[in-house]
C-alpha cells in the first residue's frame, strides 16, 4: 500500500509533537535526551548504594537502592575542582514532567579525591536526595553532570529542588562551561497498585 505525501507529512508532524511538544506546560526544556548518548564523555563511574557499580543507562530496581550518596569516580580527574549535579528530568512523571528537573544532589569534589572515588565526606552544596517511591509513574532517568573548574567555587544554593535547570545553574551561577562527564541510570517505576 502506497502512502501519499500528505499522510506522510501528517505522520511526521504527529511524531514531532509527541517527541518535542509532549508537555508544553513544563517550564524547563529537556535538553538531555540521553546522558549516555555521547560516549566520549561517559567515563564517570557510579556505584549506587545497595546496587554496586553501574553501566551508563543501566536499569535498576527501586527496591534495591539504599539511602547513601553514590560513590563517584572520574578516571580523567586532574588537580582541579569538580562540581557534580544529579537530576531527574522525568519528575514528577515521565509522561508529564512538571517538576523537570528534580534536583537530587550538588556536590563539590577535589580532583585527587575524585580519582580515588568519593567517600561521602565531600562538601554537599545541596544534600543528597535519593530516588523516591513517590516518583512512581513510569521511567525515570537519574542523570549526573560533572563540571571541572580551576578553583573551588562560591556556590549559590538553589531555592527549591523542582524545576531546577542544571545547564542554567552551571552557566549563570558558576560559569562552569561544558560538561566534562555525564552518566545516567534508569528506574522503571510501576504505577501504584501494580505488583511484580
Description:
- This protein is α+β, with helices and mostly antiparallel strands and 196 residues long.
- The protein has one domain: PEBP-like (Phosphatidylethanolamine-binding Protein).
- 15% of the residues lie in helices and 28% in strands.
- It contains 3 helices and 9 strands, in the order H-E-E-E-E-E-E-H-E-E-H-E.
- The strands form 2 sheets. Strands 3-9-8-5-6-7 form a 6-stranded mixed beta sheet. It has a 3-stranded antiparallel beta sheet with strand order 2-1-4.
- The radius of gyration is 18 Å and the shape is globular.
- It starts with a helix and ends in a 7-residue tail after the last strand.
Brief summary:
This protein is an alpha+beta fold and 196 residues long. It has 3 helices and 9 strands. A 6-stranded mixed sheet has the order 3-9-8-5-6-7. A 3-stranded antiparallel sheet has the order 2-1-4.
Tell me the fraction of residues in β-strands, as a range. Answer: 25-35%
Q: Identify low-pLDDT runs.
A: 16-31
Helix content: 10-25%
Q: Could you name the CATH class?
A: Alpha Beta
CATH topology: Phosphatidylethanolamine-binding Protein
| Main sheet attributes: strand count, strand direction, barrel closure | 6 strands, mixed
Distance between the termini: 41 Å
Mean pLDDT over the residues: 78
Instruction: Count the domains.
Output: 1
Global morphology: globular
Amino acid at each position: 500500500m502506497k502512502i501519499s505525501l500528505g499522510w506522510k507529512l501528517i505522520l511526521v508532524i504527529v511524531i514531532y509533537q509527541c517527541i518535542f511538544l509532549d508537555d508544553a506546560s513544563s517550564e524547563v526544556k529537556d535538553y538531555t535526551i540521553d546522558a549516555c548518548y555521547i560516549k566520549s564523555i561517559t567515563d564517570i563511574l557510579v556505584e549506587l548504594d545497595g546496587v554496586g557499580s553501574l553501566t551508563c543507562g543501566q536499569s535498576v530496581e527501586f527496591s534495591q537502592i539504599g539511602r547513601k550518596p553514590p560513590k563517584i569516580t572520574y578516571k580523567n580527574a586532574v588537580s582541579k575542582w569538580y562540581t557534580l549535579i544529579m537530576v531527574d528530568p522525568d519528575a514528577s512523571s515521565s509522561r508529564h514532567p512538571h517538576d523537570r528537573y528534580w534536583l537530587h544532589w550538588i556536590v563539590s569534589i577535589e580532583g585527587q579525591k575524585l580519582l580515588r572515588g568519593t567517600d561521602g565526606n565531600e562538601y554537599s552544596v545541596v544534600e543528597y536526595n535519593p530516588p523516591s517511591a513517590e516518583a512512581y509513574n513510569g521511567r525515570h532517568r537519574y542523570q549526573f553532570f560533572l563540571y571541572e573548574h580551576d578553583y573551588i567555587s562560591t556556590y549559590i544554593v538553589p531555592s527549591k529542588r523542582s524545576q531546577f535547570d542544571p545547564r542554567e545553574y552551571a552557566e549563570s551561577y558558576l560559569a562552569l562551561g561544558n560538561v566534562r562527564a555525564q552518566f545516567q541510570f534508569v528506574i522503571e517505576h510501576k504505577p501504584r497498585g501494580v505488583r511484580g
